[in-house]
## 1
Amino acid sequence: MSHTEITRMKPSPVPLATLIGRELRNEKVEKPFVKYGQAALAKKGEDYFLIKLDCQRIPGNPSTSFSVFAQIFDGHNGISAAIFAKENLLDNVLSAIPQGISREEWLQALPRALVAGFVKTDIEFQQKGETSGTTVTFVVIDGWTVTVASVGDSRCILDTQGGVVSLLTVDHRLEENAEERERVTASGGEVGRLNVFGGNEVGPLRCWPGGLCLSRSIGDTDVGEFIVPIPHVKQVKLSNAGGRLIIASDGIWDALSSDMAAKSCRGLPSELAAKLVVKEALRSRGLKDDTTCLVVDIIPSDLPVLPPTPRKRQNVLASLLFGKKSQNSVNKAKLSAVGAVEELFEEGSAMLDERYLNHLDFQSLIPRPSH
């Protein structure tokens, strides 16, 4: 429903007790507005966006709408994997969700459908016989619930009204991620730097064969079975104060920390905020890579813009709720008192089990070819 339609309708009186009861049960009378801005500077021309504001859980029913924002597709070794994922990933995710279920069931099914969609997209791309690869950061916003699935080193952060910046993704870079290094070596892969003439080692840690510095991606069929397309998935529910997502490629995160990116654009509308984050990254590091940024504001429907975050520094203990967790599934809900973000689901394992396979249209997973 558009803003104009909402303002034209005269709401019928609601008893105070009912309103209080709704708030206590954390029900939201109105869906939030979603506003976004994007900015990009190309060095190699291998970054791609996907933005869809008009998706519907039930086709033809606008009240079941949700939005998809993906700063995906930071391609490498060519652009074909990035373009293929942009064109096919959303359909593969949605086709893995059962039809005719309630919104709550749909949201519960979404994390596993995202895993299935990533794997199916990777399998289909392998069948094309091309060797490029891509990172993916894929964000689904339905009401106040945000679900993020990611492979690679693009990143999505959440900045809430309490001033707490939460990381909703995990970087799958072998240089920084010890758990991924252990997974690759335990599976028989080799992790090391590039050897140059004279035996000197240079550059970031890479997986051999292939020499990719990421441990997860879509595509990269020439780098062996250790690079997997299974995303880290996290689902959170915002309070009705709303929040801001910053989704960006490594061109941003190589230059700025999550806190720096969030602070650089607080209080500004999303369109200007995205440009400012890119500008800040360039000021810090220069244009050394494709530098792309999406800023998405989830705004209460009675506010024109996201209110500025209070300057007073909040209790740092709140950020510990979003600290490093084990790779096991976390299904119990947690609540951050500052910023009121409820964590609904997190799964970071690189292993597939029968729950995910049931979503796929394939009898079995096709292994990546190893060379």
## 2
Amino acid sequence: MPPVAKELHEQHIERVVNEALMSSKLKFKELNAIAATVKPGLPMSLLVGMGYGKKLAREHNKPFIPIHHMEAHALTIRMIEKVKFPFLVLLISGGHCLLNLVQDVDKFLLLGQSLDDAPGEALDKFARRMKLHILQEYSSMSGGRAVEVAATKGDPNAFEFPMSLAHYRDCNFSVAGLKNTARKYILKLEKTHEVEPDQIVPKMEDLCASFQLSIARHICHRVQRAMEYVSLRELLPPDEEKTLVVSGGVACNKFIRGCVEQVCLEMGYRLLAPPPHLCTDNGAMIAWNGMERWKAGKGVIDPSSPEFDEVDIQGRCILGEDMREDVAEANIKCKWVKLKI
């Protein structure tokens, strides 16, 4: 509920900033710059963060660094690992799913992104439709986490799902068809077994496992094609270790990450992922992105410049230069890595 989120942001943002300064034993005069997320996201919430960040920049005469929140996800790994540019990144969360080649702090090539629901959103909606929350074991979990845990007890081959975007030789993602197939299975099970509103369908764990596998397989196919494309266009140094970074909330899903790792092993990539507390949206990644840009001298805006007043939020935007058409034109046919489940 965007208006409620906006109100809560306004109520707490000053307290949170002051507590962060106190715990770090720093004062505003010791800071180099102020960074704030300006895109993409809920416009009402972005306005609160950007407005407060610009206010601090003016009051304390500090440079302002507007941050693309998906760029921050992509660069978070460099906070804990020595990852050189360029590298491939897969960002999977409740609101996004995209593949980028990261060439520099401010240079990204977009290879593919969601055409409809993001994987995290699909898993959450599936969990709600399955009514997993009425079971005590899953009542305190997020939808995606509940599906992941339930899937460990099921057979991923019990239900058949279609190959999403099988005839499109690009790196875009689509899970709407998979979600619709899952809905049909649920309706059929409910009708066949006369399931009451407060009951769970039979074979619940099997359906969770099969749905999760269908999403994992789809992600793996798009990742593999991205690797093939990068190799075809010689966008990564051939004599250096190739890296795929997985970030975003769904990167915490061990099954999906394990499937992606199998592709990495076959394709000669090392897989890196931030720890779970840095995978989901967090302030530390925004600060880190700001520091990366500050050190590189890129996107740092003086509060007295005309550019400062022109900084605004964007609810929707892509990350980097759009290469999706070129990926499709490359028409890459892949021999899919066989996942060991």
## 3
Amino acid sequence: MFSNGSFEGDECVCSSRVLRTISVSATTMSRPRVLITRRDVPQKALDIINDKCEVDIWHESFPIPRDELLKKISGKDAILCCVTEKIDKDVLDAAGPNLKVIGTMSVGHDHLNLEEIKRRGIKVGYTPGILTDATAELTVALLLATSRRMFEAHTEILNGGWKKSVWSPLWMNGWGLLGSTVGIFGLGRIGQGVLRRLQGFGVKRFIYSGHFPRKEGEEMGAEYVSFDNLLAESDFIIVTCALNDETREIFDDKAFAKMKNSAIIVNTSRGGVIHQDALIKALKTKQIRAAGLDVMVPEPLPTDHELITLPNCTLIPHIGSAEATTREAMATLTATNIVAGLEGHPMPAALC
């Protein structure tokens, strides 16, 4: 009896251990697998995902190469991506049927093949609203840097030009906003944020163009006009629209030809809204006065690109939302979107 009892006791202990092992393994195996395409995602967002998921992070300092993306996404349940990752049919095929959720750390979604994503029933979360203030601030800063020739002036300090031209009456003269007409193409959240910030600069007239007149535009004293009128009447044109089939390369040769020779254009939306060769031609021939770009094609822009050589073109490297609290909030919302989608709950910010 003792021997039999001992055996039974050992069997119970072993069974208990086996059950615990199976339980732990099942728990581990059941955790959704998430691919994160950037190593520098704010820790707060990583903690949210790590708490519920198994995480695979691309640890290099440069964007994940296409071949690595296709390899690493295989079998994943979700992906946290940025605008640098093109999520198309090939990526979705490589992911396989497990992929249920895409969280993009962006408002723009032209890097996502939404038609194919919707067809497969995959949920997509994005980050609207959070980056409005940061991008609006940056847009105003870029407008002022371009119109007042700040980058050109800084170069003059470095190359000795300041010493040669000190206090020359016409040297480094820029163009102010006082009494001007500012046109905004795309009066969404960011466009409205820009308009509000510019109201203290003595702008004489605000006009805007888009699909339809907006109540917010009327409330802020802006006048809705056609696209052609926006081009013809604006001293400064600020581009804050979404990139889609209607807006792609809408600023082309014909558009620049309708603008004032003294006009300045600033783009903080997507590079594809402007036909870049047409812009280069307009800048070189003085068809327009200057341009300020936070976005361009391609990104990153090659260091030998012709745009970089033009003194009347102010370039910054797509940093519209690059503000510390904004980026952390974007990452946190993206992580929350992913976890909610995986758990079958409504996403805080669902694109589809």
## 4
Amino acid sequence: MKLQHLPRNPVMAVMKNELHSRVFSTSIQCMSKLEQGDKKILSYLLDRRWVLASPDSKINKVSLAEIQSEHKGVKPPTFFLSNNTQPSLGDVMTENRKNDLYFYVVRDDLLHPLINGNKARKLDGLLPLVEDHSVTDVVTCGGCQSAHAAAVAVSCAERGLRSHLLLRGEQPEIPTGYNLISTMYGSVSYIARSLYAQREDMLTKHAYLVAGKGGCVIRFSDILETSLAARESEEVLPALDGCRNVLRGANAEISSRKVVIVNEGAGDAFGLLGVIRLVYFLSQNNLFGKERPLKIVVDAGTGTTAVGLALGAICLGLPWEVNAVMLADTIEGYKRQEKCLIFDFKRLCGLEHLDDALNGVDGGIVHWVERTHPRKVCFQIW
């Protein structure tokens, strides 16, 4: 079985046979450590407020059939694509012949008219946390045509938050695409590439500028620490009193501006939650179930979506493999990001048996793949 999610231009290159032959043994070993469908884990990860009213997504099935030429050997084979918008899933799924080529398309591109695919998923669990901490302004960054920046701008506008978007490079003469959306819904600043290279410093300085006198700046690491402290004391998650990073000292009066920094591509542990919610949805018995092996291929910008898919499969005990096509960094960079996200996720959950299940996999729950074709495919699951 193959499952593929293509919110933008699908290309035939993703159907290369080598992806079918990859074996992801680490995931299988992790699943044996974790009881399938653990209620405590599911309750902690999924029993929260979300942006999306439902995790549901439409699923299409695309089949590829070869049309036999009347003169064999004279012309190259011709292929025909057919799209089934209401495929049979669950227990009634029919087994295809061995030579049949097909994949499923999870249409997350239909979740929102302006927010594309996995961007909506990562903000699904992240933005309610922002609201829980009475944040008024969100600062983030991305390329000039960043889908992430546009998604943050639109989502914040819909929820009454102010967004401040730091975009790499020069301002275009005529705004188009995601750049146009960003300028319509958020406050955009264009940053020289030399300054943008120091993302953390750039984000921090701009966040304090937005906060102004008496304001405060928080990061999701602050929210994580507060969450851990609240869990240890068995208290309800509090707001960040004093915001930790108050401009005029610990006893300063807090203004109405409370600014949160969202990393590029929502590359935070809390951004994993919405992706895990998607995995839970897809693993329902009326869809792909928990027993069928799936091969997942996802384009990786920051790598957060790929790590979220892999963690979701581990938490739910699913025999699913995750292959991520690298778009923006080296394999060493992606492995570092994967390790950091797993570390923060362990702390976020704080569940001993989950920590045991993830023990020893800090560098190996995603298979990172070199990109060999131009950037066209955004998110695929095989």
